[in-house]
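Review form for a predicted model. The reviewer records the input and the model, then writes brief findings.
Reviewer: anonymous (R2)
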Amino acid sequence: MSTEKKYPQRQCIGCGEMKNKRELIRVLKGTDGQISIDATGRKNGRGAYLCPSMDCFKKAVKGKGLERSFKMAIPKEVYESLEKEMEQIDK
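Model under review:
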């Protein structure tokens, strides 16, 4: 009897696919209300997950996935800063 390691699954807010948590990027709404990308995946706050591609990021923006996840309106400036961070990761 083999013991397979269980990996936590999360759903991408862009494409809706379930993937291993480690394969996804965590977007964090911190306790101070600041929205940023959490590279470590361990910071305190509410998290939403995205595939590491610009296509999924654009789908999440268009479908208001972040707004639904964080239950708040997200300013345009936040999307612009997240897009710059995603471009660095997507390369």
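Findings: The radius of gyration is 14 Å.
Further findings: The chain has one domain: 9-90.
Recommendation: see findings above.
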